[in-house]
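4.2 Preliminary Data

To establish feasibility before requesting continued support, the project team ran the inverse folding procedure on a target of 84 residues. The structure was first converted into the token representation described in Section 3, and no sequence information of any kind was made available to the design step. The complete token record follows.
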């Protein structure tokens, strides 16, 4: 099944490792460093034209991709449940 992340972007639900709230998780220096490192490596895809609220960590064929979305974690989790 697929999960719509916003801005015409969908990912396979089996590729999702985690869905994280940006406000809560970026308090940690480790998370900020992880996101910065992946952005420098070109692994971050911004699918938000508005204020970002969450990030989705995906792994497909041992390649990590992080999607930044304007959708809240609650909305994404509801959509994920509906896709099954």
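Position-by-position output of the design step:
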């Amino acid at each position: 099944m697929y999960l719509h992340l916003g801005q015409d972007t969908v990912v396979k639900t089996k590729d999702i490792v985690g869905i994280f709230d940006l406000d809560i998780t970026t308090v940690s220096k480790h998370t900020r460093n992880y996101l910065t490192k992946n952005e420098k490596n070109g692994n971050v895809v911004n699918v938000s034209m508005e204020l970002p609220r969450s990030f989705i960590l995906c792994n497909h064929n041992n390649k990590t991709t992080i999607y930044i979305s304007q959708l809240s974690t609650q909305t994404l989790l509801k959509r994920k449940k509906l896709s099954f």
